Amino acid sequence: MKSISFVSNMVVEPVGKMLEGAYEIEYRDLDSIVSTLSGRVESDYLVILLESRFFYEFYPDEASLQRVEFLHELIEGFRERNEAKVILSNIFDSFAFIESGLSQENIRALTEINLSIEKIKTGVSDVEICDLYSLGLRFGFDRLYNQRNRFLFQAPFTRKGAAEVALEIERAIARISRKRKKVLLLDGDNTLWGGIVGEDGIYGVACDENYPGIAYKRFQLYLAALRRSGLVLALVSKNNEEDLIELFEKRDMPLSMSDFVSWRIDWRPKSLNISEIASELNLGIESFLFIDDNPFEIEEVKNALPEIDTLLFDKENPLAMIERLSAVEGVCAHMVTEEDRNKSEQYRSEKRRAEVFGKSADMESFIKSLGIEILWWENEHSQLARISQLLNKTNQFNLTTKRYTQAEVEKMMREHTVLSFRVKDRFGDMGIVGVMILKDCFIDTFLLSCRVLGRGIEERIMDVAIERCGTSLRALYIPSQKNSQVENLYERLGFELLSVGEDGSKEYRFVSKKANRDYMSLKEGE
User: Which of 350, 354, 352, 348 is nearest to 261 (CA)?
Assistant: First the structure.
């Protein structure tokens, strides 16, 4: 069972009790935020719940932002000594009972404080925000807070408030700890728009400024935002393809056909189409979320593809679907990287590569025609989020499948060598797609994203380690359920097998190169 330590300048036991049973709970002394962040915490998560009095007495002032800076410095120091993930709250407050102009001034100041707290998340690894501010906007101050208890007992939350804060903590933990989905598979009729194209016609379906069309328009806008944050959209609809293409061309909707990296619009079982899309994108079914308004289609897909997650679209209450989708585990991101923002374009580039490969005489000619460029960095802190992301989601081309938190990677950058690799070719920039962790001259971790496999890139990347260590280079392969394709990789790269463990693990040392990929550009990044 995972463990949580609470520290706060208010009484938080009512919140913690809501999480008992799911987590082991520890409460630090009231008002011990500074001493806690200055010491050691052995729990998996440190939850810091902040009441506005941490930053100001009654109203925000000039010293409030200085207090945020002080908190930032404390959390930076905490990260150097601790591996516990930090769930840090922002703050909510009510200024409803003061003169209007002053109220607006205080609201602006409160917003600035919360934006500065958000910067702590982006500036320190393994920090996620517990969004008390959004809870306050959603439910209202009086439903979340009891002013009398706030000042009399330092216990500000109502029963409703404590329950909602506990749920928000769980959502924050899920964002920081769990893998994100990669693909949203979407039905069309009564999911992206209200109505059925084949019956209502392209101008009869609802996606406009009137109800229920406004609900579907808002849902499409949310999908577009998720796409920009790194989720890939695919369309799976039982329809005539020409009807849907005409709909997207002639109706003014937030999404267009170009927003979908793949689609299957026909009358075949949706499970078959989803399997084809998974194969086309080279992704596991478990990374997909399928959304449909028809319970039959949901059950058909779940029965055929038990690994997939599904969400039934409630066409009777379409306005609720943004909240329901955002609550699905793996939809919202902890951190959005540059690679995430370019994800859809990267898959389109891969489709263009596949088309060229189909016309090539052989694999080697195809690889040489790509004009591959590889850039590498050593201990590049600006890439921490992406490196951590790859370490925790890459399965197939991963020689040891060791999972490290962002804080652990940061520590290894101080003590060892963390190499990151970016790959480009004539079709586009694939971003940071490889990681190698060297402890002295031992390869602790070596992985590549599945989207660059089959091009010999691993052979060229290995040259960086070989140039550093020569025949002193050692390596390890640890078998997993998903990495059998790299079981004999080190033999192919010129390593000699030294031993085989009872669990199938293999130890190696480098002897000599077996392949030459010098036609791939390899240089250190700036």
Answer: 348
Reading the block at residue 18, the tokens are 């809501």
Pair of tokens at residue 203: 């101008």
Whole-prediction pTM value? 0.75
For residue 408, the SS3 value is helix
The Cα angle at residue 242 between residues 239 and 248, in degrees rounded to 5: 90
Domain 183-326 = CATH 3.40.50.1000: yes
Amino acid making up residue 256: S
Residue that the structure tokens 């995972």 belong to: 2
Query: What string of DSSP letters covers 173-217?
Result: HHHHHSPPP-EEEE--BTTTBBS-HHHH-TTTSB-SSSTTHHHHH
pLDDT tens digit string along 123-137? 898 999 999 999 999
The pLDDT of residue 351 is 75
pLDDT tens figures, 325-359: 998 989 988 877 777 777 778 777 777 777 777 67
Q: Can you identify the CATH homologous superfamily of domain 3-177? A: SGNH hydrolase (3.40.50.1110)
Distance in angstroms (rounded) separating the CA atoms of residues 27 and 421: 42
Q: Is 118 in contact with 133 (CB distance < 8 Å)?
A: no
